[in-house]
Amino acid sequence: MPPLSSPTLAIVAADTLGRLGGSMSEHVVTQVASAVVTQAAPTATVLAGFAFSMSLIVAIGAQNAFVLRQGLRKEYVLPIVIVCAGTDALLITAGIAGVGAIILAAPWVLVVVRWIGVAFLVIYGVLAARRAIRPGELDPASGSGPAGLWPTIAACLAFTWLNPHVYLDTVVLMGTVGNGYGDNRWWFALGAAFASAVWFTALGFGARALRPIFRSPVAWRLLDVLIALMMFAIAITLAVEAITAH
What we know:
The protein is mainly α and about 250 residues long. The protein has ten helices and no strands. Residues about 1-15, about 25-40 and about 135-145 have low confidence and may be disordered.
């Protein structure tokens, strides 16, 4: 969505106000039209950032699967949402500030991140597969207890920072599109960051609506099987990308 044209808005606003209030002075009309332009351009840019960010975030991936599982278990949901949304805001800011150019200038960094990410995803996939073999009830009294706050946050950070696509999408792509809005680029960044906060809040806290379904060990087994398959598939994809990048 391209930014709104300020001159066009000014002309339309001035013409409309002139028709509605013939007794208004030209000075008043100009001032009101200028106010319309000032408010409309940032608002449209914020909405554009929100929509573009949502198009990148709302997808089946390792991070979203992790947040969904934490939400279903009601374990450290608020810290996880804050970490995910805060990390996205940091990466979006970096992209708008021009860090994407540095990433593109050092492709070896993404190769290293890919291989570390492959190792992490394989390990997490194995853990999910093991849980699928030995499923537990959703009720903490009958299932395994929480892993602990800091290990959970560490896993959340790993899902974000060890995913090379987050640098290409959130930093490079988001930065490129955002900077196309010129002086309004930070409004674009605000909308994008807000979309991330909305999405992870809805995913983390909305997951509890599915808790009745996951009272059954069979449901947890199916979820962990899907998570394991997803982790292995993403790991294979990253490995192939790392090999073909040379």
